[in-house]
Design a protein that fits this description.
The complex is a heterodimer of chains A (about 120) and B (about 110). In chain A, the strands form 2 sheets. In chain A, strands 2, 4, 5, 6, 9, 10 and 11 form a 7-stranded mixed β-sheet that branches. Chain A is built from no helices and 11 strands. With about 120 residues, chain A is mostly beta strands. Chain B is mainly beta and about 110 residues long. In chain B, the strands form 2 sheets. In chain B, strands 2, 4, 5, 9, 10 and 11 form a 6-stranded mixed β-sheet that branches. In chain B, a hairpin with a 6-residue loop joins β4 and β5. The N and C termini of chain B lie far apart (about 40 Å). Classes of the chains: A mainly beta (about 120), B mainly beta (about 110). Chains A and B meet through β5, β9 and β10 of A and β4, β5 and β9 of B.
Chain lengths: ~120, ~110
């Protein structure tokens, strides 16, 4: 199956710092990747869709200047939480679609962010 | 009205029971249907994938799609404690827009 990795799995940072989360497709090239946020006991909230080589499409209410997404290669997308605050603490999950494959998406293991 | 409705549970069953998880939807154009399993503090894992109506079986898991009723189900036979997780349904027409249910929390008691 398609494997998606994320790094780091957990990160703790001080308020005001920036944090970068990497999402990699390990055994396929992903032209489209998604970034989600999930609060405890809640469902997935789509933040943005990123396409390789172009600007990400953000969902309504998601600040693009705060959550910077870069999809510079077919196997790597990054999410940078800029000037993080405690309310940004959450579980961030990326996913990717396999070009020409099933009409589904494969998720990474998630990154838990805690902002102190 | 939400595009996809899923009972959040929680659902608690004894080991060995048959579990039935369900989602209803409103958009008759949905044609791709998925079930994901999410363990605590992990990313969702694709469990079942179905195109259009019908049944699909994989081991102890059976996915059913009834497009006429706009209703999908996931059955788990001989449930095990390791099946304890949150189960998310998802569906789409085509393209990149996926619609997720809120997830059903399942606990299988040994």
């Amino acid at each position: 199956g398609a494997v998606v990795s994320q790094h780091p799995s957990r990160v703790i940072c001080k308020s005001g710092t920036s944090v970068k989360i990497e999402c990699r497709s390990l055994d396929f090239q992903a032209t489209t990747m998604f970034w989600y946020r999930q609060f405890p006991k809640q469902s997935l909230m789509l933040m943005a869709t990123s396409n390789e080589g172009s600007k990400a499409t953000y969902e309504q209410g998601v600040e693009k200047d705060k959550f910077l997404i870069n999809h510079a290669s077919l196997t790597l997308s990054t999410l940078t939480v800029t000037s993080a605050h405690p309310e940004d603490s959450s579980f961030y999950i990326c996913s990717a679609r396999v070009p020409g494959g099933l009409e589904t998406q494969y998720f990474g293991p998630g990154t838990r962010l805690l902002v102190l | 009205q939400k595009e996809v409705e899923q009972d959040p549970g929680p659902l608690s069953v004894p080991e060995g029971a048959i579990v039935s998880l369900n989602c209803t939807y409103s958009n008759s154009a949905f044609q791709y249907f998925m079930w994901y399993r999410q363990y605590s503090r992990k990313g969702p894992e694709l469990l079942m994938y179905t195109y259009s109506s019908g049944n699909k079986e994989d081991g102890r898991f059976t996915a059913q799609v009834d497009k006429s009723s706009k209703y999908i189900s996931l059955f788990i036979r001989d449930s095990q404690p390791s099946d304890s997780a949150t189960y998310l349904c998802a569906m789409k027409v085509t393209g990149n827009q996926f619609y997720f249910g809120t997830g059903t929390s399942l606990t299988v008691i040994p």
